[in-house]
C-alpha cells in the first residue's frame, strides 16, 4: 500500500509540474505574440 501511495504521489506531482509548464509556456508564447517589440529586445541582447 505504501509503495502504491508513493507511486501515485510521484505521478500526480509530475502531472502537476507538466501542467504548470504547459500553462507557463502558453502564457509566454501569448506574451510574445501580443507586442510588436520582440525584435528590439533581440537587438539589445545581440
The total number of structural domains is 1
**Count of individual helical segments:** 2
Assign a percent range to the helix content: over 70%
* CA-based shape: rod-shaped
Low-confidence stretches: none
Order of helices and strands: HH
Structure class: mainly alpha
Please count the beta strands (DSSP E, at least 2 residues each): 0
Terminal residue distance: 55 Å
- Rounded to the nearest angstrom, the radius of gyration is 19 Å
Sheet having the most strands = none
Q: Beta-strand level of the residues, as a percent range?
A: under 5%
Give the overall average pLDDT: 81
What does this structure look like?
This protein has 46 residues and is mainly α. It has one domain. It is built from 2 helices and no strands. The longest helix has 32 residues, at 2-33. The radius of gyration is 19 Å and the shape is rod-shaped. The relative contact order is 0.08. The mean pLDDT is 81.
